[in-house]
Amino acid sequence: MKYRSTRGGVSGLSFSQAVMMGLASDGGLLVPESIPDVSARLADWQGLSYPELASEVMAPFVGDIDEAVFKKLVLRSYKNFQHPEVAPLVNVGGVHILELFHGPTLAFKDIALQFLGELFSHILTEQDAVLNILGATSGDTGSAAIAGVRGKPGIRIFIMFPDGRTSPIQERQMTTVLDDNVYNLSIDGSFDDCQNLLKTVFNDLSFKETYALGAVNSVNWARVLAQVVYYFWTWYQLKQPAEFDVTVPTGNFGNIFAGFIAKRMGLPLRKLVLATNENDILARFFQSGVYERGAVRFSNSPAMDIQVASNFERYLFYQLGENATDCAAFMKRFQTEQCASLVEPAGFFDWFTADAVSDTETLESIQGIWHEFNYLADPHTAVGFHLAQKHQDPKVPMVCLATAHPAKFDDTVETAIPGVNNHHPSLDALLGLETRKTAIVDDPDVLKDFIRARC
Asked: pLDDT tens digit string along 358-376?
């Protein structure tokens, strides 16, 4: 399998090259040259464990790593998950909740970032190379990325997060990691500001090459690929229905784009319900065809407090018939005018139902799930559950992705359900530990200087 950029300036990359490049050197995102149809193999994969299924689903996209070696990488990626099924499916009031929070940092990002950490280590060892990872996080990506690479030789990781805009527990999960190869950088601004800093630095190709920068955000194709797996896993856990729907809480479009790829691969996934909060740029796009940036609104579901969804460009590339010229023009128009639109929003556009949930509805959803079904949900899962119920077809199984353990958002859950017992021992153990972070201004030159001084 070879990889190319959504903007047409990069092509012919191997899987390993795509993983190490992260963001394409022309400013676009890397995608496979083709999406394999695996529908004829679905029957053969029945009964596989999660790691076994992951190896099978991802293998057609790899090609340059020995099959036996790749399977060992995948197996190691899921050895530290706390549930034997990795991602169990739970029926809550007629909606099937896929719990993706049983990894080391209790968030769905572990599913991909434990794998990416193993992948980076393998490739760096093979190439006798080093890697400096630059990442931006609205909360969960940072701690999951750090957990995936902390202490690994040949790797440094620099994680930017919006100061005061992640939950206190999310910040502690990052800043209590004191390994010498870990640097946490607090930015006075929003996640979009962090993400813009990341892209600005990556687009300085000379700096990127000199300091061997790599990406762990979902701009890295391997992140998306690992997330494709749990859509297949869900179908098997549902006993292989003729079709099923999935509601996906999403801000950066990576989680739901993985479902798009799974459907393209032949999985009988009928509808993807895009669930977001008051930062509704994606919901508005799928309702109107207009992609228009607004001001970031800080909410009870902070991982979705995003106005520029980095993985949207990958979807756009396919929506525009894989026309890199049109895709680049759309993104340039959006960057300069803060608004761009599709002329004829048809085709893949119809695979999505999109909706937004207010902060009040999020709290009410947390309350309702608890009081009606005795199930405790974090605010992002609550957003998804609210819309899963709203858009459920009684004839089609509905799945909602649970993206984080509720204890990661204890303040919001406490507001919704005062006095509820909402703890996790791994999070409680962080209280009182030493922390380390560095505050830097929102300036790419300052960020570059910080990286230079430590490399």
From this structure: 999 999 999 999 999 999 9
Which residue, among 397, 416, 93, 106, has the nearest Cα to 269 in the 3D structure?
397
User: Regarding beta strands 30-32 and 3-5, do their DSSP bridges make them parallel or antiparallel, or are they unpaired?
Assistant: antiparallel
Helix, strand or coil for residue 364? helix
The alpha carbon of 286 is separated from its chain's Cα centroid by a whole number of angstroms, namely 20
**CA-CA distances (angstroms) from residue 290 to 79, 281, 349?**
43, 9, 12
Domains and CATH numbers, the chain: 89-106+222-424 (3.40.50.1100)
Assign 231 to helix, strand or coil: helix
Whole-structure pTM value: 0.93
**407 in Cβ contact with 106 (< 8 Å):** yes
Active-site residues, by number, are: 109
Characterize the bridge pairing of strands 339-341 and 30-32: unpaired
Task: Provide the 10 A C-beta neighbour count for residue 128.
Answer: 7
Per DSSP, the three-state class of 314 is helix
Average pLDDT over residues 253-268: 97
Distance between CA atoms of 107 and 404, rounded to whole angstroms? 4
Q: How many whole angstroms separate alpha carbon 162 and alpha carbon 165?
A: 5
Other Cβ atoms within 10 Å of 42 Cβ, number: 16
The two structure tokens encoding residue 178: 């004191």
